[in-house]
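Exercise 3.2. Students should predict the tertiary structure of the chain below and write it as structure tokens, then compare their answer with the key that follows.

Predict this chain's 3D structure.
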Amino acid sequence: MPTRPRDYRLYSAMLLAVTFACGMWYYTSHVLIQYEKLDAAERGVPRGNLSDLYPRWLGARELLLHRRNPYSPEITREIQSGFYGRPLNANNPADPKDQEGFAYPLRVVFLLAPTVLMPFETARVVFKGGLLALTVASVPIWFRVLRLRCDKTTLIIAVALTLASFPIVQGIYLQQLGLLVAFLVVGSVAALVRGRLVLAGSLLAMATIKPQMVALTVIWLCLWAAAEWKQRRMFVVGLAATMALLLVASEVLFPHWLFYFIAATRDYIGYTQGKSALAALFTPVGGVFLTIVLLCVLARIWWRSRHEPANSPAFGLTTAVTLCATLVMIPENVPHLQVILLPALLWLWFENDAVHGTVMTDILRRVPFLLLAWSWVTALALDLLARWLPARPSVWVVLPLLGAGLLPVATLGAILPVAWSRRAT
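Answer key:
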């Protein structure tokens, strides 16, 4: 039977998506990282394992095996010795400002406990493979949560383009726990769709190891549960019971940990001086104002969606908007957290024909994908031209990353008007 034109287009798109994915991974490992090493050597910046897993892994290991305080200055110096290759020197202007302390809630050690007996390099490989597998698995789960239809070829294209995005590549290279949190969130929402409310609450509680990533989602889902309390209360029971268990276990394991965590968080904010995406684009004052406005808009969307069943498109859309809004408001404008943009981007792409908007809204819906396409095409071009690039660090190397900081705001600007104007069913 001859292949239909639509099949040709799908297979061509699949080949292009896989090419973009290979291109981004090659760019990151053979172009970007190599230039980062050259730049660090030129400026005298220390480089160790540079693994975001390492500070959490070492803190968990020292607490569980040796009962040492993971928030202590001594552990921080040991973390620096592995992460940067040596302890940082406050008098050296070339040294990074990020102290890489153990700035996580203590409950993270329970998730990392299975790895503390492994050598770090083994734990690192296991974690990389696990994050890759969880990220791939999250794509079809989001399709089901958002009630999006696709065939196997389209799903392969979506997975390939997800793996082609620099935030995902960076998160896997750094072994960022944010990718694990993103999977716990989609697992929680998928459990709600299937009616497994206690499991959904438990998974969301475990996702609070990075509270800034899930705080708004917790508020939205608790409001949703309260709207139909008799039918949905077990979600709150699962959430509260798991949180209580984690907090009690943390206190038993290391009494008064919360005070150390608060101090570590305060120090982290001080030395990273993080800004939200809104503050970075619209000044700190403008960022605060827009954050307040956005919270009011979110509250209205939540209120209108609170009675929607978990298996409805409106519920999935509201959850996607909530995650997207989270990313522009938290004071961490870093690419690897953009994994939580995935549901919003999937919805914008696959529901493109379902919403009839103005010319302006149609333009806004295209901007996030133009930013992504820029990163894919320029990464592929740099792969092909790598041998002719200058040996010293150059601005050309970061061309694929130029739109990364704009992607959260662009995605929110595209999906927020749809969620605002959509009527409750």
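Discussion points: Residues 48-87+96-421 form one domain. The chain has a mean pLDDT of 91.
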